[in-house]
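A.,

Following up on our hallway conversation. Structure tokens first:
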């Protein structure tokens, strides 16, 4: 079967794609915003609790930037129809709060927060590409700030995990 080359989407279709993915990540961040206080309480290691607290502050900042993006492009967020992040976070990452070894819960918490940040990093990267194609310069800058925060959080949780695992 011959392969077909996909034509370059026009601006209207690019905007539709952009809004679809922006809305997914926006609704995911809103979901995380409400879950963060509980995640902080779940951490048994003080550095992890502080890291999750910082993550929560960044989630708030990212939501504000995305709300600014919606204003800049003259749109409003649509309702949460399909939220893959919600599926990942459901029931606090399926963590067993009654673990005999708190380290296991903490490592699971870090793992899942990093999984979420990797999803965010990939989503922001795609949104930045589309924003560039649509010549949304201000939007691109706001998305880059969100991307950078997610990358920094991923690195933060890696450093915290090293504190757990190494005896240095």
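Then the amino acids I'd put at each of the 168 positions:
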């Amino acid at each position: 079967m011959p392969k077909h080359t996909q034509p370059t989407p026009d601006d209207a279709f690019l905007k539709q794609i952009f809004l679809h993915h922006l809305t997914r990540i926006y609704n995911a961040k809103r979901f995380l915003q409400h879950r963060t206080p509980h995640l902080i309480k779940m951490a048994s290691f003080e550095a992890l609790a502080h890291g999750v607290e910082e993550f929560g502050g960044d989630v708030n900042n990212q939501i504000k930037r995305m709300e600014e993006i919606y204003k800049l492009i003259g749109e409003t967020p649509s309702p949460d129809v399909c939220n893959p992040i919600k599926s990942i976070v459901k029931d606090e990452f399926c963590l067993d709060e009654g673990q005999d070894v708190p380290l296991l819960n903490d490592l699971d918490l870090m793992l899942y927060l990093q999984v979420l940040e990797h999803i965010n990093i990939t989503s922001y990267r795609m949104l930045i590409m589309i924003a560039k194609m649509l010549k949304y310069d201000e939007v691109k800058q706001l998305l880059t700030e969100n991307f950078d925060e997610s990358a920094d959080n991923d690195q933060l949780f890696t450093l915290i995990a090293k504190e757990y695992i190494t005896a240095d």
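The two ends are 58 Å apart (CA to CA). Curious whether your intuition agrees with the design.

B.
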